[in-house]
Structures are given as C-alpha cells and as structure tokens.
Structures
1.
Amino acid sequence: MPEVELISRLPEGGERKPHLLFVHGAFHGAWCWAEHYLPWFAVQGWPSHALSLRGHGGSGGADGIRDYTLDDYCEDVTGAMARIGAPVVLVGHSMGGVLSERMFHRRPDVAGLVFFASSPLKPDPAVVMRLLRTRPLSLMRGQFGGDLRALRRAMEPFFLSPDLPAAELDRYHGLLSLESPKAMAEIFPRAAMHRPEGDVRPVLVVGGEQDWSIPRASHEALAARYDAPLVMCPGAHGLMLDPHWRVSAEAIRNWLDGSFPA
C-alpha cells in the first residue's frame, strides 16, 4: 500500500468533539482542504484532517494511478481513520462523497457524513456535452493518454470559479493530479444507497449554486434518500477553494454544532 499523506490541524483547546476527515474528489489532494478549511475548522474547535488518496497530492503511488479502484481509495480512508484513532465525521467532495458514503455504510465509527458537491448517481447528459465541447482533445490526452499538462488545461473551466484571482487559479490548476480511469468508471452508474433503518447518524448535503456540473435536482434526490437537510451555497464545484468558501464552511459548522453539541 502506498504511503498516504494526512494533513492535520488541531484546536488549541482540545475540545472533545468528533474529528473531521475531509476526503477530496478526483484529480485533487489534501491541499484543497488545507488552503482554508483545515485551519478555519480547527479555530472553531473541530480537530480537522485531510488525506491525499494514493497517487494524489503528497501521497505515494503516482505510477499506479491508472489501476486504482474506489475500494483502493476506501482503503486509504480506512488507514487515515486508524491513524486518527477517534470517531470521525466524513466530509466528502465530488468523488470523495462516493467514497465517504461507502465508508458511512461500512463503518459504525463514522459519526456523521457531509456530502459536499458529491458526485450524482449518473452524469447529466448536458454536463457531459458541455465538458466534451470545451476542451475535448486536452481531456482525451489527459485522461486516456496520461498527459498531466493536457489534463490540467482540460479541467480549467470545470472545478473553480472564474472570479478567483488569476494567480490562484494557476496555482490550484498546477496542483491537480491525474485520475484513475477505473475509479472514474465506477462512479457512473452505481446503485443508490439508502440510510439503514434505525440509523440516526446525522447527514448533511451541500451543493454549489454556480456548480454547473451537478444540477440542484441531484442534490435534492440525495438529501431525500438520507432524510437530510440540503444547503445550497454560492460557489462553483470546488466550494472549498471558492471566493465564497466561508459560506459553505459556516453551513457545515452550524450543522456540526447542532448535531454534535459539546
């Protein structure tokens, strides 16, 4: 198993609260949470951690990226939970939402779950066509040819708000990793999961108002499956890096404070 990066930020007061484990989506790494979310939530009193899945960010295993599966990535989350050694609330972004959902059903020590711009059960045809029309050659060279430079160019219009300063956009795009085609193929389509009967662990669904990759109806369907509140926040798909990132962070904090009172 490749060495997996885990970035942690702990509150000074050492409050007895569940730890937060942030799980990034495709092409990203722990860096996307370390920018704003980890230090901010630690200041709010929540022990906060983010892992980089194998082949991403500061983790090992980049050479095998084309062969990893969602179960391989779940193994990385399991390892991060063991290192934390305490009940966790999983916050899963995009593909990370799919991983976090699997872990929620497999592990009773997952105290709660936040679907954060989580990947829907099936892609919207209009979204697929928009992505293919934008930079199709770069997308093909990146995802199927392993050309990281082309992949980063293809992803430029997808994840981040164009309202970010140009220097920040360039820096974030320069941190994107290649992604496993096998893992991506497992995301769509997949069977819908439902909250087990009698399971009262809290769940929250957060979506981005300017996220053209996931229609609001997909978030509403997910919230209905888990009988969970839905909060739509200003921002593109990469809400944690958006100029309005604090709005989504505060929405999660408010839910945490209500779900896990000190």
Note: The chain has one domain: 5-121+177-257.
2.
Amino acid sequence: MREQSENLLSILKSAVHHEALSLNESAEYDCLMELAQEQSVLPIVGEMLCRDPEFIQEPVYGRTIRQIVASVAAQASRTAAFLELYKAFADAGVYPLVMKGVVCRELYGNLKDHRPSGDEDILIRPVEFETVRKVLKGQGYEPERKEMTERQLEEVQEITFEGGAAGLHIEVHTNPIGQESGIRRDMNQMFRSVFENQRRIEVDGTEIMTMGHTDHFLFLVLHAFKHMISNGFGIRQVLDILLYDEKYGDEIRWDYIYDNLRKVHAEHFFCDLLYIGRQHLGFDLPAKYGPNCPEELLADLMDNGIFGSKEQAYQTAASITTAAIDRGKKRNRFMVLLQTCFPPMEFMVSRNPELADRPWLLPVCWIRRWGRFFRYSRDNGGGLVSDSIAVSRQRIRLLKKYKIL
C-alpha cells in the first residue's frame, strides 16, 4: 500500500501542476483506485490514469470511466443547485459566508468538478437562522432537526439540511469549528471578525460571499487540524490548503496566521503540510519553521481515509483522543477512560442539541451512545474496543510530537 500511496501522490502532483503522468512500475491499479476512493480523489486520479495507454488496457478502466462520468456530472449538478440556492438567500436579504466546498473547487481549474464534495458549508449569524431556514425549506430542504432554540444555535456547530436538488446537503454553521472541546472553542475565538472581513467572489456567473483570504486560509488549516486531533483527515484537505496558499499567499497576513496557529500548537503541523507539499506534491511554498514529523503525518493521513472515515475504529478513537487533549497535563489512563465513557456536556451537546435546553437528559444520551457503540462493535466483529485504543494510541503519539499533549 505504501507504493500505491506514492503513486497516488505522484498522480495528484501531475494533475494540479499539469505535468506528464509518472508512476512506479509496481502500480496496482485496483489497489490504487481503492486508495483514491478512500481519499475522495478518485475522479482526479481516474482522469489522469485514463490518459495512460497502459491503464486503458486494464480491466478496471471501464469501471473507472463510469465512476468519473457519474461523479463529475453529479458534482456539476450539486454546484448548480447550490448557486441557485444562494440566489434565493440573496433575494431574502441574507448572504451566508460559504466555507470550503465551492470556494476550494474553484482552485482546481478545469478539474474543479473532479474535486467532489457532497455538501456545502455556510456560516451565518444566529439571528439569520430563521430566514435561512425558511429559504431552505422553500427550496425543498428539510432540517435534520425540526426545532432549534437560541441556546442550541449557540452550542452546535452545524444544522444539516437534506433533500434538496441534485442530492445536495447543506451544513448551516453558527460557528466555524465547533464547541465540543476547549481547543475547538479557542479556535472559534479566532473568527470573531469574520463577517467584517468578508469578500465577494463570482462562481459560474453567480456572486457569493465568503471569508477574507486570511480568515479562510486560517479556517482551512484549523479545519484540517481539528480533524487531525480527533479522527484524522486526508490528502484532499492538504491539496486545498496548498492550492489556496499558492494562489492567494500574497494576500494572506502571515503574521496573523502564525500567531493564531501558535495559540493551539498548530504552527508545526502547518509547516509539515507545506513540507509534504514540497516533497511529494510539487509545491514550493515558504514555511516559517523546518519540518517536525511530516512523514509520520503523511503516513497517518494516507491511512485514515477522508476525515478518518476509513474504518469505524478511526471514528470511535476520536472520543479517546479528545478526552486525552481535554485532560491535558492532568490526564491519566483512568480519567481519560472515564471521560471517554462519560463525555462532558460540551462534547455531548454537539451531537444532542436538546441537551442545551434540557441538561438533565445527559445520562439518557450517554446510554444511547453506549448502545450505538455496542452495535458498531458487534457489526465490526467485536474488536472495536481494542482497534479504537490502538488507533488512539497512534494518534496520541503523533499529537505529542506536536506538543499538543
């Protein structure tokens, strides 16, 4: 799999820099396409491979063509649906800030529809929620949760709306990062002026609002960092960050970026992403610090799958890792285990917004959580506990190298 990871990186390098494709002789196409699927870059990888005469002779070629065509067509439809939705927001007098998604896809040029995203994230002021909800419902989107109180809007990270055109999901955020841990609340504080620094861009003839370059770039890095310290992230997020830096680096306030990254011990993590870009993806972007442990970070993110979703163990291990971070220097195995089994209110309310108004339901939510865990464990052959502990130990070793623990 290591050789196929190197091939995947080589293909992505060729794609974003418009270079000739170069692969190792040991390319195993089935394995390579499986890895690309896990990392949610299959359309890009497949598009590049289909230019290789050797790949055209492979049995996987026909399936890959079908996957590319379906993915690109679906993404183009989702983008068009989102732009129509944004026009409806504007007609209602609200202008949400678009995060990631369509903004990042624009960085990929002719391959923008090859960079998939199943949802679009928008950031709003809490007072705009009712207007935004009415617009979404009018366009055929239904909220995952039917009722949201003011208190819940302050606590949750996003409210999901589904069922709209082209299978598009909308994540409505009232804060960029989430509130379920101390480090996430610290990161949210860095975006207090985000609406004052917003900017307007045009996508396919439609004007949308998004964060200013410095805020958006900081968000992309911290969003990856947030996933790294919990259940992991993938190479697609690295590409988004590198491409944004390459295109808008001259407009980014770098002192502000590094000052804020230092507050959460993310500055060396970021510089390692730049190192990965130089060594493996053909970028030449300046970094303030030298490499820390970039190859270990690369191995971790290539093993995770996108957002740590490759296996259930990666997702379950996030609770253990989060507990270890929250305990900080006071942590010990017993207290980490206790917090993993009985997460604090801040962690639980993000998944159970009703707790914001009815905190006495916390024990009930714990019981539901345990029930889901045991069902997952049964479905995964009964080894979920040991697998999750192994994954969390590996992640904790990495976090120690970044001095987060």
Note: The radius of gyration is 21 Å.
3.
Amino acid sequence: MSRNNILVLAIVLFLSGCQSMNGSRPNYVAPDAKAAELNMRLGLNYLQRGDYEIALEKLEKALKQDPGLSPAHNTIALLYQRISVNDKAEYHFKQAIRYEPDYSQAHNNFGVFLCQVGRYKEAEQSFLEAVKNPLYRSTAQAYENAGLCVSRIPDAVLAKSYLRKALQYNPNLSKALLQMAEIHYDEQGYMRARAYIERYRTESRWTPRALLLAIKIEHKLGDKNAVSSYRVLLKGKFPDSDEALIVEKGNF
C-alpha cells in the first residue's frame, strides 16, 4: 500500500479538529483566555495557508497566554509534524491530551503521527481512544485510519476489522474501500476485491494506484475487456505515472 495513504486523509482531519467535545478544565480560566483563543485561531489560519513562521509565532503566543489550551497544543503539534520536528510534535500532542483526555481529534491526530513514524501499535491505541467518545463526529475516519495503519504491520485480519467498522459508519470512505480491495486481492479473493474496487470508483476519482489494482484484479479474473478499458484510462489520465510504466511493461 502507499505509505502516504493514511496521511492524505489525516491532514484534512487535522485542520478540522480545533474544538474538543468535553473539556477537562471547567474551573480554570486563563488570564488571557480570549486572546489565547484568538491567537490559536490565527495560528490555524496561517498553518492552513502554509505560512508556518507566522503560524508558529501565533500559536506560541496563545500557549503563553493559556498554557492549558488543548486546541493550541494540537495545532502547534500539527505544525511541528509538517516540518518534521517530531519530538516537539509528540510533546504537544501529549499536552493536548493531558489537558483534555476526551479530546478525540487530538487522539486521532496523535495516532496519525505515531503511524507516520512507524509506531503502529501505539497508533492503533490512540485511534481507539479517539472513538471512545460517543460524541466524536469523525469516528468513521478514526477507524479508517486504524485500519490503514495496522495494514502496515502488516495485520490483514485486524485491518479488515477496523475498515469494516469504518464503512459501517460511512459506506463511502474511498480509502477504506481501496484498502479492502487490496487486502482481498492479496488474499486471492478476487471477486470481493472487484466488488470493493467498483464501490471505490463510484465514490472517488481514479488514482494511478487504484487503476493499477483494478487492472490486476480483472487480469486475475480473466476479463480482457475490463483490463483493456482500465489500461486506456490509466494511460490517458496518468501517462507519466509509475503505474502506467508497470502496465506498459506487463509487470502485473
């Protein structure tokens, strides 16, 4: 599987996770709470725009004004993750969770970070912490992330379990559908793999990776017309991709 698969989804999730469902500091009011909140939001905006220097300045200011502001810790952790300062990213993810243990988005984001650095079992536990909160609105994505991550161990049985849960919450998750297709292909369950790739194509735009998998599935099932059709799509849409070169050489 693509090593970027989980991260593409994760960045989108990261930037929506600025509020936790249940705060754990109801009796604490920072001296500059409103200013800290404002600077945190400004920092997030600059992060989204890719202006990391100003984003960092705003987020550090927010944390000086309110050291226990979990969304600010979460956001600055994302910034450090983007610029590959992993020790600081981990520190701030842990601070976000320390101040708000029920902050599901921070648990999910920390899980993505842990998976990115190869700590798969720790990442799995972080995703499971995220879904404990019944009010969490991104449960499907957290289960999807868990499935994608444990696929790297690799643990196909566990991955299928999490991906099925993700698809129960949201049947249209394209990355979960594609990963299920890949797992069933690897297990020689070509009919099931075809079913998932067909669901995938109704929910998402084709990628080189998905088209190559579709070609491989139809090749195994002996459908020459489907193979030809997918080959034309791959060559037309992604002529310079590694996948197009693989198919051109017949290495599938």
Note: Confidence is low (pLDDT under 50) at residues 7-24.
4.
Amino acid sequence: MIHKLGMEDREGVVIKDPTMIIEPIKYTSSQAHNGELEYAFTYPFDFGRAFFFSRVIREGFLAYELNETEDEISNRTHKLGESILYPMINTIKDIAKGNPASEDTLIHVDDLKEAKNFARHLRDLGVVATVHSFGEGKAIIRREHQSKSDRISNFLRGGLY
C-alpha cells in the first residue's frame, strides 16, 4: 500500500488507535523521503541532523519490512543518494556561476498588484522575495537564500567548513 501511495505522489499513511492508548504509527513512502531530502539538500545548512537521519532510518526499516531483494535495495540506495547529492551539486554550480540560491513558489492571485503586495509582505517579514513572473492569475514568487549563497561562495573560495 505504501509503495502504491508513493507511485501516486502521496506521502503515506498514519495508523491511529481510536482510543489513543497506542501511539500512532507513520509509514511514509520513499518518494516522500526522497522529495524532502531533495528539497533540504537544495538549500544545505538549513535542516538539522535529526531531519536527515530520521528519513534515512525510515528508508532502512522500510526496505527491511518490505523484505526487498538486493536489486530493490540497490535501487533504493541509488535514489536516496540522488536525492541528496544532485540538488546540492546543482545549487553549488548555480552559485559558482554567480546566481543566488533561490526558491520559486507558485501563488494564485487576481492581478500583478496582489502578487507584488504579497512579495512586499514577505519582505516585511524579513524574507528576500520578488515577483519573478506573472501571467494568467499565477505568479512565481522567488525567495533568495542569501546566507546559503554566502556560505557556499565561501567554500568555493577555499573557506573551511
């Protein structure tokens, strides 16, 4: 069931005791773990060790509980590694080219003025955000992660971790 949910881009399931005597059990799909890790490693340094470790541990137990073959485990480890390294490498390459670490979010708005007001609201909250594009009631809000850009740039110049 978890595999099927993952194939449908769904996160997983939580099984709860109706009396709440037994703690809930959460089963999360590999696709959800990989997606969370991909996001987290696109912006390294933001998430703590516990965030990463818990997802890797879940993957190990999921492989065990599903009694996966060596080929299935190999495929799982390959996907897990790609979720970690590709987004980080792509961010490093972008910053090395002079681009900032940024994140785009799609919002639905009535007009460009509303999108600009939302970006201004984010800036008032201390978030570096701009309207990247607008069309047909949809706006892309681009958030810049300056601290990540600065830290990665420091490493690229030979700074230490």
Note: Residues 2-96 form a domain with the Methane Monooxygenase Hydroxylase; Chain G, domain 1 fold (CATH 1.20.58.2250).
